[in-house]
Amino acid sequence: MEKKSSHILNASSNLLGFSLVIITSLKISKISHSTYLDEFAGIACLFFAFSCFFSFLAIRSKHEKRTDRFETIADYLFLTALFCIVLAVIIVTIKII
User: Fold this and answer.
1) Domain boundaries in the chain?
2) What is the pLDDT of residues 34-92, one digit of tens each?
3) C-alpha–C-alpha distance, residues 12 and 37, integer Å
């Protein structure tokens, strides 16, 4: 099985920055109190950060079994954070329309 840890680390760190931009723009525009958008983006930030952490551990681990476990955890955290970002985009779309 091909290792995905480096791909997860790269994508998670990029999307972590995207989530932080969402939260910052909501705070600047002062619309964060009227939607759940900042909550979903905040949860996504946490999950992306933990996904980065576990994918880094998977890359640095010397034991194959531990590497697979860390990679699986990072993968599921990434998927959950991606789901939160999709919900945030849906909320933005509904607010605009």
Assistant:
1) 5-92
2) 677 888 888 999 999 999 999 999 999 999 999 999 999 999 999 999 999 998 888 87
3) 19
